[in-house]
Design goal:
Helix content: over 70%
Mean pLDDT: 89
Oligomer: single chain
Order of helices and strands: HHHHHHHHHHH
Structural class: mainly alpha
Strand content: under 5%
Largest sheet: none
Radius of gyration: 33 Å
Number of strands: 0
Distance between the termini: 21 Å
Shape: rod-shaped
Low-confidence stretches: 1-17
Number of helices: 11
Number of domains: 2
Length: 287
């Protein structure tokens, strides 16, 4: 009687899940898809991290595309894997898969934000402006003023030297503030630096006004050239501040370091549990 009962139970199980060969086929495909799902998810996560850490626009965009491609593969595996798991009716595997799907939805929402910020590269662009056009304008400002003392009347040379030094140092101090502003994440700190920059620019303009009043007529074109350079520097500095305020590199890095690891780990834990459940299913099916 016991043997007959076991046989009947086995027959009912096979009737619900299909023939043994069909079960093994479903199981094999499910295990393969689960393994690929884990590989593709890790590829997507790694590519997203590289997009955040990239130091050029081209590299950020390229890694973001890699992340998107791997993410599409993840979503395709999820769609294909679901029916196999429902056919196998393994509650542990189904539970792990459901957990992964929930965590994946949260991960994709966060990663979309991370990649969107990373490819903007506003902090990187601000840095390039600071090291390039802003420095060139500041150097042009200095060059326009550096010979004024030599052509000034002897009685005015000390005064001219002092005003030139005040103007040039004010612009250089603005340059010094650009780097911490680009790296800063706190809006209050950025606002304080911007206020200081404004005061320094005003000091440079006051110095130019003073120079215009005391230099010889022949030297005034140099003061005018310095004013043009200062206006250019102000324009570039304004672009730097605007890009820095966007803070996309800082924000994407913060999300990647603080929030993403928890979701990545949760997804990977669910995938590991899914693979373990399918491995045990395979062991049971062979007994």
């Amino acid at each position: 009687m016991f043997t007959l009962a076991v046989a009947c139970t086995s027959a009912l199980a096979i009737g619900c899940r299909g023939t043994p060969s069909a079960v093994f086929t479903e199981l094999g495909e499910a295990r393969q898809l689960a393994a690929d799902l884990r590989v593709q998810f890790n590829k997507a996560s790694d590519a997203s991290d590289r997009a955040v850490m990239a130091d050029t626009d081209e590299a950020s965009v390229s890694f973001a595309r890699d992340a998107d491609k791997a993410t599409q593969a993840v979503q395709s595996d999820v769609v294909e894997l679901g029916p196999h798991l429902r056919s196998l009716a393994n509650p542990n595997a189904t539970g792990a898969f459901d957990d992964f799907s929930k965590h994946l939805a949260e991960y994709l929402t966060l990663d979309h934000s991370v990649l969107g910020l990373a490819v903007e590269n506003t902090n990187l662009k601000a840095q390039r402006l600071s090291f390039g056009p802003a420095r060139e304008a500041a150097d042009g400002f200095r060059d326009a003023l550096q010979t004024l003392a030599a052509v000034a009347p002897a009685k005015d040379r000390c005064r001219v030297d002092a005003l030139v030094a005040k103007a040039v140092l004010s612009v250089r101090d603005i340059q010094v503030l650009q780097a911490p502003h680009i790296a800063e994440a706190d809006e209050g700190a950025m606002a304080r630096m911007e206020k200081e920059m404004g005061g320094l620019e005003a000091a440079a303009r006051d110095a130019l006004k003073g120079l215009s009043a005391i230099v010889d007529t022949k030297a005034r074109p140099q003061v005018a050239a310095a004013l043009v350079a200062l206006d250019k520097f102000k324009d570039v500095s304004g672009q730097i501040v605007a890009l820095s305020r966007r803070n996309t590199n800082v924000r994407s890095l913060a999300l990647s370091l603080r929030e993403k690891p928890m979701l990545t780990a949760a997804c990977d834990d669910s995938l590991r549990a899914l693979e373990d459940a399918l491995a045990k299913e395979g062991f049971t099916a062979t007994r």
